[in-house]
Write a structure and sequence with these properties.
Blueprint: H1 7-14, H2 20-29, H3 34-38, H4 40-51, H5 54-61, H6 80-104, H7 106-112, H8 123-148, H9 151-156, H10 177-182, H11 184-193, H12 198-215, H13 234-244, H14 258-262, H15 267-290
Protein name: Methylsterol monooxygenase 1-1
Subcellular location: Membrane
Transmembrane segments: 35-58
Length: 304
């Protein structure tokens, strides 16, 4: 709750007029407790899990209209009931694990110093902190993910997430309850090390979940803006990890690919792509000679 009764008091405290964003924030948050504001995370996560994957459902249903060429594993087709069943399982986990975890984790947010007051952070401060959060989460997630692909971690926990060998958007948070708790640590570590404003924290949670949904989409769209982010993995990169399955020792990265490259855990994927390029070139040549078309589905090969 803000320690001001009026905008005039806030103006005197800051020594300047409030920006438009700060005025909106004051009008919205002034009478709400910090706990209430923090619990907005539950609403944001519910909306993201429920709404963001919906366009991908329509794409899956309309593959015959031209979307099939963007499907990474085109031989796999999921019915509407399959996707709805996945959503129900995710919502069950949300109600039983994610929601309660958000409700009881508020003391940790206060302890690390995430603030709710004025002034609001600048756009550059928000971008810098989000960049740090992504880097910290990506590095720690990489090693936890590798652990979960060990014999014990996979059989006891991570195999649930890999039930979808051709992932879909709704399957991004589909996992064993223990995995949901374990992978919450990397997500929280960045804000704990570099605490900022609650708005930055909201953006971090939202962007990380949207990114996870995109990488589990099962589609590699050429117009996706994330393709221009350096070292960004994306749907094609992570789809390979699911395709190889439980024996996968490749593409552990959650967001960026630098850890896989440094530690050599992307060799299978790079070999896979190299062979696919060679097959496509041969198909293109044969297609041109025969006056026909060519198409090489990406799921026809696994790494050796």
């Amino acid at each position: 709750m803000l320690p001001f009764e009026t905008i005039e008091e806030a103006t005197i405290f800051l020594g300047r007029n409030l920006t438009v964003a700060e005025t909106l924030w004051f009008n919205y948050s002034a009478k709400k407790s910090d706990y209430c504001l923090y619990c907005h995370n539950i609403l944001f996560l519910f909306l993201i899990f429920s709404v963001v994957p919906v366009p991908l459902v329509f794409v899956e249903m309309m593959r015959s209209l031209g979307f099939d060429k963007y499907k990474i594993q085109p031989k796999v087709s999921l019915s509407l009931s399959d996707m709805f069943r996945c959503y129900k399982d995710v919502m069950r986990m949300f109600v039983l694990v994610v929601g309660p975890l958000q409700l009881v984790s508020y003391p940790s947010i206060k302890m690390i110093g995430i603030r709710t007051g004025l002034p609001l952070p600048s756009a550059w401060e928000i971008l810098a902190q989000l960049g740090v959060y992504f880097m910290i989460e990506d590095y720690t997630n990489y090693w936890i993910h590798r652990f979960l692909h060990g014999k014990w971690g996979y059989e006891k926990i991570h195999r649930v997430h890999h039930e979808f060998t051709a992932p879909i958007g709704f399957a991004a948070p589909y996992a064993h309850w223990a995995e949901v708790l374990i992978l919450g640590i990397p997500s929280f570590l960045g804000p704990a090390i570099v605490p900022g404003h609650l708005i930055t924290f909201w953006l971090w949670i939202a962007l990380r979940q949207i990114e996870a949904i995109e990488t589990h989409s099962g589609y590699d769209f050429p117009w996706t803006p994330t393709r221009y982010i350096p070292f960004y993995g994306g749907a094609d990169y992570h789809d390979y990890h699911h395709y190889v399955g439980g024996q996968s020792q490749s593409n552990f990265a959650s967001v960026f690919t630098y850890c896989d490259y440094i530690y050599g855990t992307d060799k299978g994927y790079r070999y896979h792509k190299k062979v696919l390029r060679k097959l496509k070139e041969e198909s293109r040549t044969n297609g041109a000679q025969n006056g026909g078309s060519y198409y090489v589905p990406t799921q026809d090969l696994k790494s050796e």
